[in-house]
Amino acid sequence: MPPPTAPSRHSSPIASSSIRNVAVFCASANGSDPAYRAAAAELGRALAARNIGLVYGGSNVGLMREVAEAALAEGGRVIGVIPTVLVDLEVAHDGLTELHVTDTMHTRKALIGERSDAYIALPGGFGTFEEMFEALAWQTLKLHAKPIVLLNTNGFYDRLLAFLDHCVEQGMLKAKNREIILVARTVDEALRLLGI
Known about the structure:
By secondary structure, the chain is of the alpha/beta class. Helices cover 42% and strands 16% of the residues.
């Protein structure tokens, strides 16, 4: 079955039957705003309630722990993928449905991509940004067509989104590629954009 086609900000949601697992990119920290943890937990519960598997970085700390624990508590499927170098640093979660330990960060991201039908990015730092931007860049190269949603909890990504608009204005980013990234303020809106 071919991967789902990514919608623009103005198109209809993806057919729900095409999404079985969602990759979630997020921080190994909790952040300073309790809303970030709350949104991560809400997303985990919502995916489990819809029988959608969660694929994530396999860590037992920060927002990664929050989303995984919430999904597990609701009986959800949680697939963790963590490289050997981070097993001790980020403390691999040993209570997941599946835990895959990879040799490198590159193989980690590849396996997350293989196991997922869509992506959601929660607040995070360099790792989250890198994962999200790679997924976006690869979609522009037509290496995949999986939808990518940015969960902009409490406006966390407002300045990044303004910068992307600036990139379009400066001729560094095509407007059609800027539209690849779908933006939601709430978990419900993010899942509606995916049609799940």
